[in-house]
Design goal:
The chain is α+β, with helices and mostly antiparallel strands.
Length: about 140
């Protein structure tokens, strides 16, 4: 193989590689934008339910309305290292849809909190709740 031919092949390889890099970057950007849009839409589906949930909780004289359950993939994992049911759930651990919902509730002045769900003395959860103005303590327990 001649040196000029080798140089031309290397040059062509570099050009093709750079073109492929651009296509890959564009694909990743589109995928990231699509994933972000999906999360935004999922959060919207939760947010539009809040007025009805608060109304129902208020009619039942409950102190809080459940906004959403926080699934394991929606926090950073630090909650699984809690040593006691009395250790607080911290909002800074939220990720994905739960973070969008919590932040939106905060921005709307709804004063969201993260509570454990208690049933028959057992604690599990967490859930995002907002005050509903009632007097009855429902199955949520602030931690």
């Amino acid at each position: 193989m001649e040196l000029a031919q080798l140089a031309a092949l290397v040059k062509a390889g570099i050009k093709t590689g750079k073109q492929q890099q651009k296509k890959i970057a564009q694909s990743r950007t589109q995928a990231d934008e699509s994933a972000a849009e999906t999360l935004r839409l999922q959060a919207e589906l939760v947010l539009v339910q809040i007025p009805t949930r608060v109304l129902i909780a208020t009619l039942a004289d409950q102190a809080y309305a459940e906004v959403m359950e926080v699934k394991a993939k929606e926090h950073d994992g630090s909650w699984s290292r809690r040593t006691s049911d009395l250790d607080p759930y911290e909002a800074k651990a939220l990720r994905g849809k739960a973070k969008l919902v919590y932040d939106s509730c905060q921005q709307a002045g709804l004063k969201p909190e993260i509570h454990a769900i208690t049933t028959d003395g057992e604690s599990y959860g967490p859930v995002i709740v907002v005050p509903a103005g009632g007097e009855k303590q429902n199955r949520f327990r602030a931690v």
